[in-house]
Design a protein that fits this description.
With 562 residues, this protein is α/β, with parallel strands linked by helices. The protein has 22 helices and 17 strands. Strands 1-8-7-3-4-5-6-2 form an eight-stranded mixed beta sheet. Strand 16, helix 19 and strand 17 form a beta-alpha-beta unit. The longest helix has 29 residues. It is globular, with a radius of gyration of 25 Å.
Length: 562
């Protein structure tokens, strides 16, 4: 039989070959007994016991995931606990038990009702359906004394195939054992995709029903670069996959073929990610998310705690630059002790710099103090401070005033503080349109393409139904990027990119042609992007960018790419 190629969504620039192992966690419940035979009090007690045990499991899994994968990824388990303890869900289960259903059936019916409701919504709300399924399956396992499939103990060389992988499933995968995974559903922003990048596992998601044609035990190649699943591959395909397509790690900085240096940095969300980023050859940190310091606690971190964290980050890259994004909460990042407003559309509300210059002004100043002290006490590396969700000159000027005041205050205390590089994220159309006004206030721009694409295209980035609209290759997105780099031409302002687009080697030539001089990404993609940079001729890249900017559709842009 000749090899079969199935197409999906590429997740990581890695390739693996192994033996297909289907993961099918769903188990049908038997028909429930007659209501008269059900002991309601006993069933309710069983549900409450299972809920307590599930919460303990979730707390333990959250802690393990934070240590192994990262704080951002681990935060998904907070949502699971919220669903587990949600009064509406608990009341729904209790009512069904009162109507004569056993606890397991009551849980299944109640959760399925909410799953259906969330799945019909858009964007992030639709993604919550998977979280509900995860919590439902956990409770059913506990209520039926079912055995949990231990995905961390699969045979070496397993390729996991599944309808979908929940956060609990994916967090179990051992990169040393699993050669890759593929799922029927999912996109680049799904939990499974995010975990795959963090764990450096070859993965393809969103293959569709065609994946179900693959049988257990078949040899499968997972090509996370092209988004292909190759079934019953030829000897040549297996040999190519076995050799690996992953680029070698380069500790040195890289230049294009004609000598233009491009900084290739890593996005980091927790201190645990610093070492792996350095090990993958990152030149520095292009985006250090600081939210992990403020989440999952009863009060804000003090200056001393923040100082130690920032100092460690700077010291990890003694010859590199560490770009720290100031606190970016609001939107989908709730912090209970900050009393965030209940907004109808939080992504367009009080978030990012809007809070730092408003209700969180004290936190902003404390964070700047910790950052500048860490920089002053570190003889290596260099610090850059970046503001999130900036849309006006007034916001930059106000933040600049605070920064300058903090510098003077520290100097008056005998601390040799220096003003760091000061920049802003370009993640809204307003910022792209105003970049020519921003240049006189900043040292750098960093383009956050995840938000920029969704705001430019009015297409929520977590909504698979509008994924094509939110594609980075849309001409409108490219023109917003070009407006930013054009504004910086002839100035000392450098332009980087820290969104998902920066980590796609297929787009590296285009980004170099658009004028980017720094690219920051998930650490797993750093070697591949460095390799691609070294192959690029700047003149050819510029010509490619000009053709892409003249394109009228995403398909036209796609056809231009190598």
């Amino acid at each position: 039989m000749s090899e079969r190629r199935l197409s999906g969504v590429d997740v990581t620039p890695l390739t693996g070959v192994g033996t297909a192992v289907w993961y099918r966690p769903d188990a049908d419940l038997p028909e429930p007994p007659a209501p008269a035979e059900v002991d309601g009090e006993a069933e309710l007690a069983a549900f409450e016991d299972a809920r307590d045990e599930a919460e303990a499991e979730l707390d333990a899994e959250r802690e393990r995931t934070a240590e192994r994968v990262g704080e951002d990824e681990a935060a998904v388990f907070d949502a699971h606990v919220q669903f587990l303890t949600d009064p509406q869900i608990a009341d729904g289960v209790a009512e069904r038990i009162d109507d004569g259903l056993p606890a397991a059936h009551a849980v299944a019916e109640t959760f399925d009702e909410f799953v259906e409701r969330f799945a019909a919504m858009d964007g992030k709300m639709a993604e919550r359906a998977d979280d509900l399924r995860d919590v439902r399956d956990r409770l059913l396992r506990l209520l039926t004394d079912g055995e949990r499939v231990d995905l961390s103990a699969l045979p070496d060389g397993s390729v996991v195939l599944a309808e979908r992988l929940t956060p609990s499933d994916t967090a179990q995968l051992d990169p040393e054992r699993v050669a890759g995974f593929a799922t029927v559903t999912g996109g680049r922003t799904s939990h499974a995709a995010i975990f795959a990048r963090s764990l450096a596992i070859p993965a393809v998601v969103g293959v569709g029903d065609a994946l179900t044609s693959v049988a257990d035990g078949e040899t499968v190649v997972i090509d996370g670069t092209t988004g292909e699943v190759v079934v019953d591959p030829s000897d040549d395909t297996v040999a190519a996959a076995s050799e690996g397509t992953e680029a070698r790690v380069r500790e040195e900085r890289v230049e294009t073929a004609d000598g233009r240096e491009i900084e290739v940095a890593a996005n980091v969300g927790t201190p645990a990610e610093l070492g792996p980023a350095a090990d993958r050859g990152a030149d520095g940190i292009g985006l250090f998310r600081t939210e992990f310091l403020f989440l999952d606690r009863d009060d804000a971190p003090d200056e001393a705690e923040q100082y130690e964290t920032y100092k460690r980050a700077i010291e990890t890259f003694p010859e590199g630059r560490v770009v720290v994004r100031t606190l970016d909460v609001g939107g989908d990042k709730p912090v209970p002790y900050l009393d965030l407003p209940d907004e109808e559309n939080p992504f367009l509300g009080e978030r990012g710099i809007r809070r730092s210059l408003g209700p969180d002004a004290d936190l902003f100043e404390t964070q700047l103090r910790a950052l500048l002290r860490a920089d002053a006490d570190t003889d290596v590396g260099s610090l850059a401070v970046m503001l999130p969700l900036v849309t006006t000159v007034e916001e930059i000027a106000a933040a600049e005033t605070v920064l300058d005041r903090v510098v003077e205050d520290l100097r008056s205390e005998g601390i040799e503080a220096e003003r760091p590089e000061f920049g802003v994220m370009i993640e809204t159309p307003a910022a792209a349109f105003m970049a020519d006004e921003f240049v006189s206030h900043v040292d750098f721009f960093s383009i956050g393409t995840n938000d920029l694409a969704q705001y430019v295209m009015a297409a929520e980035r977590g909504n698979d139904a509008v994924a094509d609209l939110g594609d980075f290759r849309q001409p409108a997105v490219l023109r917003a990027i070009d407006a930013t780099t054009t504004a910086a031409e002839g100035t000392d302002v450098w332009v980087g990119m820290c969104g998902e687009m920066a980590g796609d080697p297929a787009l590296t030539e285009l980004l170099v042609g658009l004028g980017l001089t720094e690219l920051s990404m998930s650490a797993v993609t750093v070697p591949a992007v460095k390799e691609r940079v070294s192959e690029i001729d700047t003149a050819a890249a510029t010509a490619l960018a000009e053709r892409a900017l003249a394109a009228a559709s995403r398909d036209e842009v796609t056809d231009l790419l190598p």
